[in-house]
Amino acid sequence: GGVGRYLSNNPSLSGKEAVDLFMSGLNEYAKSIGCTGTYYSVPDGLAKTGHYTSTHDLIIIGKLASEHPLIAKYAKTVSEKVYYKSGQNITWTNSNSLINPNSEYYSPYVNGLKTGSLSGNNCVYVSATINDKTYLIGIFGCPEKNGRYDDAHKLINAILESTKEAGE
User: Fold this and answer.
1) Which residues partner with 125 through β-bridges?
2) DSSP string, 93-104
3) Can you say how many angstroms the Cα of residue 75 is from the centroid of all Cα atoms in its chain?
4) How many CB atoms lie within 10 A of CB 106?
5) Using an 8 Å Cβ cutoff, are 139 and 158 in contact?
6) What are phi and psi of 70, to 5 degrees?
7) What tens-digit pLDDT sequence spans the chain (168 residues)?
8) H/E stretch holding 166
9) Can you tell me the distance from the alpha carbon of 108 to that of 160, in angstroms, rounded to the nearest whole number?
């Protein structure tokens, strides 16, 4: 709700009004960057009727996100202590095992991007830099949580092989 209130310059907006305003702005932004198969109905990304995206749009979103300095920074941050104005603090930990050097799934090529899971479907959307080129890799619908990381490694290895064969 805070972003909606900020956008409207009206701190007294109800939570629903503020979220609705934020979602409207998010959908307008998605269209402005070329997304034609995306509609956001909830800010948390959880499943809800009418909330969807397409692979085409994920490429657009992933490219912009990986090029945005702040998003890129936090997409590859393993953990960080976060301090709130209230005085409360927490340690935020990234769930992407591909970026954690202490994980068996670590890959030095991966810059982050996004993990997700819902009803036994696990996904990871990866930004990986190989030979100075950035690749976006999407793994969707893995029944096992760590299967998404295994599949990402297989695709990264395939890219490494193809670039080696091409002499890059």
Assistant:
1) 114, 138
2) E---GGG-TTST
3) 7
4) 16
5) no
6) -70, -45
7) 678 888 888 888 888 888 888 999 999 999 999 999 999 988 887 777 788 999 999 999 999 999 999 999 999 999 999 999 999 999 999 999 999 999 999 999 999 999 998 888 999 999 999 999 999 999 999 999 999 999 999 999 999 999 887 777
8) none
9) 12
Write out the H or E segment, with its range, that includes residue 144: none
Q: Is the pTM of this model over 0.90?
A: no
Give CA torsion, residues 156, 158, 164, 168, to 10 deg: -60
Residue 87 in tokens: 């005085």
Query: Which tokens hold the place of 35?
Result: 């997304």
Place of tokens 């992933």: 62
Which two three-digit tokens encode residue 1?
């709700």
Give yes or no for a contact between 63 and 42, defined as CB atoms under 8 angstroms apart: no
